[in-house]
Specification:
The protein is an alpha/beta fold. The protein is built from eight helices and seven strands. The chain has a seven-stranded mixed beta sheet, with helices on both faces. 36% of the residues are buried.
């Protein structure tokens, strides 16, 4: 499991687990450290994708199905043990959705809660008409990346860092740009879904996520742009919110 999951705080007695999926080009450390912040009733698993960190020598995945298969195969026995929730930002939101879809339809399991951030639903018009960033020239791509924010300017000006960083980012964008999902005729989940987003980010069709579940649906907006969740104040609010809702789901499970 260590190949696929980073877990900074192993908590075998935790009542629930939070599974976190990285944004495009991202590693597992940002979310893994949440295990040091959330209370002891929650164990945090942060997904580590090929082509980065300890998996840097592995080839990037080429499609969403490869990611879903690996995550589900790795975690399925553990997910049967206790309640679990999913969190994903941007590319990670699509990955969370794809994993939840397979868990429900193939294994008749669903999360206690899904937390989605910074992304339109995969079948929404905004998302379908979005430009293909992975096909941009490096020059145009860097210009776009600068406008999105979240990546320190000094890194974007460092050719050696860019040589390491750009391939994983473009590989993940290629996966998400080619990921297709039809709008469900009826909700296939019953768990609550919460969508987070930055007020200054490019517009997302967040309401379209409501079609996925018959359960509670909540939208929470934050000050900031695409990487609003990196701001300490916003992160604290998000983690407090997640803690509160995981505690509620633990009570329901009991």
């Amino acid at each position: 499991m260590e190949k696929v999951i980073s877990c900074f705080q192993k908590r075998p007695d935790a009542v629930s687990r939070l599974i976190c999926f990285p944004w495009a080009g991202g590693g597992s450390v940002h979310y893994a450290r949440w295990g040091n912040i959330l209370n002891s009733s929650t164990e945090v698993f942060s997904v580590k994708l090929p082509g980065r960190e300890s998996r840097s020598r592995e080839p990037f995945f080429e499609n969403m199905q490869q990611i879903v298969n690996e995550v589900v195969d790795t975690l399925l026995p553990l997910l049967k043990e206790k309640p679990f929730a999913l969190f994903g930002h941007s590319f990670g939101a699509f990955t969370s959705f794809a994993v939840a879809d397979v868990l429900k339809k193939r294994h008749h399991m669903e999360p206690a809660h899904i937390f989605l951030s910074g992304a339109s639903a995969p079948y929404s018009e905004i998302r379908i008409k979005a430009p293909k960033r992975s096909q941009m020239s490096d020059e145009d791509f860097l210009r776009w990346l600068t406008s999105v924010g979240g990546t320190p300017a000094e890194l974007l000006k460092n050719p050696e860092v860019l040589k390491l960083f750009l391939p994983s980012l473009k590989a993940d964008l290629h996966v998400v740009e080619n990921f297709r999902s039809e709008r469900p005729d009826a909700p296939f989940l019953s768990c609550p879904i919460t969508c987070f987003d930055g007020k200054d980010d490019a517009p997302h069709d967040i309401q379209a996520w409501k079609d996925v579940t018959s359960g509670d649906f909540t939208v929470k907006m934050f000050e900031g742009s695409h990487f609003y969740l990196k701001e300490p104040e916003n992160e604290k609010i998000i983690l407090d919110y997640i803690s509160k809702h995981l505690e509620t789901s633990q009570m329901d499970y009991l």
